[in-house]
Specification:
The chain has 309 residues and is an alpha/beta fold. The chain has 13 helices and twelve strands. Helices cover 37% and strands 17% of the residues. The chain binds alpha-D-ribofuranose (RIB) and calcium ion (CA). Residues 5-298 form the Inosine/uridine-preferring nucleoside hydrolase domain.
């Protein structure tokens, strides 16, 4: 039985695929709502993109809350300027339906967690600004967070600087607040997500599904990851954020290790680095993902996309 879930995201194509996985009829997750944050593209676009994906999924009633438009301290340009991400290209998506809630995402997170009948899982797919602000504003919410499941960081090379992965780099101070809150956490770094590659063969299987959602997903995936494929000379674009939702659906797809982690917030060359002590024995509440059954993950994704009408 799945715990109630809130997804915090910055769509972005991989966020969009993660949302389609979470919303799939094949295995309906108890999604309380979606919160959006500035990241891949500015907040107005990440919020609109999340609502477009809900419309595409046939779930326009899913509440999508707009959150923080910038990091805690850094006034960093979004990925659109930083590494050229441009929202949800590659598919002709439906317009958002109805009107979005006016409540701020941070207030939604706090109200849900303070009044939770049971602990809530937070899936975090973008910079951690919303989560950090909620924890700063209302620290007592931590006791009602069942677990944080986060895409971010790197043990090896970063993807926005040699040291840092994008989500942590955009708001390292927020990441520090979150990772020092003592909340049970599962972290999916680039080292794992770069094992999950949308190869031409896998893309063909998604294209062959033939319903509107799968066709849109295939279009976005065909466009997405070209940059990473070229930079890293990979046979397919790495599917970062869906690892988080796939873990919620089937933990056995992954192996993890409980290790100490710290966030670099000052180094000129290393700001945003997740300093993961892979062989450390100091106490930690963070499980870092290691290996993944990538083929099993794509089977899960393909089954989910095929379950849409
Ligand atoms: O570094 C990859 C992460 O940054 C993903 O979550 C992607 O969507 C971007 O937010
Ligand atoms: Ca993301």
């Amino acid at each position: 039985m799945h715990s109630p879930l809130i997804v915090d995201c910055d769509p972005g194509v991989d966020d969009a695929i993660a949302l389609l996985l979470a919303l799939a009829p094949a295995h309906p997750l108890p999604l309380l709502g979606i919160t959006t944050v500035a990241g891949n593209v500015p907040l107005a676009l990440t919020h609109r993109n999340a609502r477009k994906i809900c419309a595409l999924a046939g779930k326009p009633e899913t509440p999508v809350y707009a959150g923080c438009p910038r990091p805690l301290l850094r006034s960093l340009a979004t990925a659109e300027e930083v590494h050229g991400a441009t929202g949800l290209q590659g598919a002709d998506l439906p317009k958002p339906v109805g009107t979005a809630p006016t409540q701020h995402a941070v207030d939604f997170l706090i109200s849900q967690l303070l009044n939770a009948a049971e602990p809530i899982t937070l899936a975090v797919l973008g910079p951690l600004t919303n989560i950090a602000v909620a924890l700063i504003q209302s620290p007592q919410i931590a006791k009602n967070i069942k677990q944080l499941v986060i895409m971010g960081g790197a043990r090896g090379q970063g993807n926005i600087t040699p040291s840092a992965e994008f989500n942590i780099y955009v708001d390292p101070h927020a990441a520090h607040v979150v990772f020092t809150a003592g909340i049970p956490t599962v972290l999916f770094t680039l080292d794992t997500t770069h094992q999950v590659l949308t190869t031409p063969e896998r893309l063909k299987r998604i294209q062959a599904i033939g319903n509107p959602v799968a066709t849109a997903a295939a279009g976005m995936l065909a466009f997405y990851g070209q940059g990473d494929r070229n930079i890293y000379n990979l046979p397919g674009g790495p599917l970062h954020d869906p690892c988080v939702i796939a873990y919620l659906l089937n933990q056995d797809l992954f192996t993890t290790k409980q290790v100490p982690i710290a966030i670099e917030t000052t180094g000129e060359q290393t700001i945003g680095r997740t300093v993961i002590d892979w062989y450390g024995e100091a106490p930690s509440t963070v499980q870092v993902a290691d290996t993944v059954n990538a083929e099993g993950l794509y089977e899960l994704l393909i089954d989910a996309l095929a379950s849409y009408s």
